[in-house]
Prior knowledge:
This is SPFH domain-containing protein. Pfam families: Band_7 (PF01145). The protein has three domains: about 20-110, no CATH class; about 115-220, Tetrahydropterin Synthase, Chain A, CATH 3.30.479; about 225-285. It contains eight helices and ten strands. It has helices at about 20-45, 50-55, 55-70, 145-150, 155-170, 185-200, 220-260, 270-285; strands spanning about 20, 70-75, 75-85, 85-90, 95-100, 105-110, 115, 120-125, 130-140, 205-220.
Amino acid sequence: MTDPTSGLLHANRERGAMTFSGWAMLLIALVALFALVGSALSNAGGNGPLWLIGGTPVLVVLFILILRGFYILQPNQAVAILLFGSYRGTDRATGLRWTWPWMSRARISVRANNAISEKLKVNDLRGNPIEIAAQLVWRVTDTAQALFDIDDYRAFVGVQIEAGVRAIGSRYAYDGDEAEVTLRGHHDEVNNALRDELRARLAIAGITVDECGLTHLAYAPEIAGAMLRRQQAEAVVAARAKLVEGAVSMVEMALEQLSARDVVELDDERRAAMVSNLMVVLCGERETQPIVNTGTLYQ
């Protein structure tokens, strides 16, 4: 319902409906049926009491009205009760139920539903095109909002899933350093953010999200090759930096031990040559071939 003074949507809220157990009304229906049969037999014989013969139309109408009020609810199902279009409440009690026959009923499931979004192309925080998809488990918590505040709540869920996934995909970078929350490296944080985003979007429809997460995450095909080469280059640079760091430590340790044990006296030139040879051996990608020097270092 829209307030013309404010233009804001007044959300409906679920409340309990005044309904009855169907078993008690079934007993009354059986009594009316037996009375109707007795009235029919009296009419056929023409010797029944006048009140019984004249009450046949009343019994027929009563029996039909009682039958029209029956409905059955399975577990995790609900029925919204309406009187001439006005919402009168929701019945969630399971089993055989009965309400006034002039009440209309709108059945709705409150069971958990699973939905998987299509693969969407989104620009991440750095503007790189990525492909992203998500799945979520959702259920109706407020039947009045789902039925009367939204035209089609299932279609509404599909649209909001796409909008929420796009919002999360553009909020974070696909990849980055360890201090930055990224789509690829921080699954728990991203999934929690996606769940909060979807809950906020679906609250207007009386729907909550129990679980959600990304099912597909990749660079778009047009940049996938370039990004793969960049990741490989970063991995090579990181590996070489670690290798050089270790090699420098080993060379430093070797020189310190040679000096401490007086194994050999090295001047600056010989020290530089040893450092150069050790760095080549330790940092080279291929095995080195030793060359035996039969002369001196200065020849």
